[in-house]
Amino acid sequence: MLEFLKYIRGYLRIRVYGFSPERFMNLCSNKDILLWDIEQAGDGYVMCISLRSFYKLKNIARKTGTRVVIQERCGLPFFVPIMRKRWVFLAGLLMAVIFWYVSGWFVWDISVTGNYQITTDQMEAFLQEQNIREGMRKDDLNIGELEKEIRRNFAQVTWTSIRLDGTKLLISVKENDAPILQSTDGAQETEGTDLVAEFDGTIVSMVVRKGVPQVRIGDVVKEGTVLVDGKVPIYNEDATLREYILTDADADIVIEHTMSFRATLPLDYIEREYTGREKKQTFLRAGDGFEGKLPKERPYLMYDRVMKQSRPRFFEKLNIPVYWGSYTYREYQNVEHVYTSEEAESILNENLSLFLQTLEEKGVQIIEKDVKIDTSGSERILQGEFLVQEPAGKRAATDRGEETVEK
After folding, report:
1. Digit-coded pLDDT (tens) for 159-172
2. Are residues 303 and 389 in the same domain?
3. Rounded CA separation 320/100 (Å)
4. Three-state SS for 356?
């Protein structure tokens, strides 16, 4: 507090030297003139004195044969005149304080966590419908009502917490991850689905868990053939049909069939070559609104545009979406090239390897393969025929029929 009062009233740092600086300090003490931070400097002393007391030193200096030199002026009385000359700085400082204060009235960032089943796009669309957006006033935000609306619109949400952290709106949700409960009789209600063949081939393996099998191992099937029926018949004791129960057919079925692959690569191709000429343009962007103007004319006939964007740390701390950056326009030319036979075959074989890798990831087993590359003409053509064993069975709605009874 004492230091603050000294700053408000103003003080000087002076250097006292001459015949008897020690007597000078004694006389100051006798006249109740406060001196502090006294340090010896060469043949004299350096000390601090209040601005009001400084004007009382003239007679003391004359009596002691000393000289007093001002080394530094400190405090508000000396700061204000300087700031009067720097009114632009003061105006900028005032505007910055006002901007910082006013920006705290708005929501500048929205964060959603805990959403796994609900996609980010779905949540953003919902918030827009509720008029929750970046740049809205905090006074317009009803947190309690928003929490209710989230639980009302998303059945999988069991818990919601929304809070404001500065200018950032934090939305945390918890989704229901409990398993689906089965009915009391052990059967889940369903509309019934069949498993049908996706392609022509021969059944080589079949393990049925639910449903009625319609084919056997060794049967040749066509695309669309029902493999496992989801309509299970229930018979009376006299072997007469009583009803049908609908279920979702479930089975592991493997079909052996042929698969083809074709890849074409023209020998002539065009590649970009950059000339080294570049142009840059800076921009300023605030949210999704204002952005620095782009050039009206094309900088080059053919070019790429690379954007670099950064966010000032000040605005990042306040979660205010203000960015600046630059666009770099790089000129290039399209240059024609020709693949050699070895290069073309290498590229085609790489495409084939990626195709085979995809099949392996799907659980497809390759039994036989026949691959040829046509080297005639202005392009290279790779053709392959494969005998594979592939898991099969896609779902289709069960034909309920007139006698079907759903349970």
Report:
1. 899 998 878 889 99
2. no
3. 10
4. helix
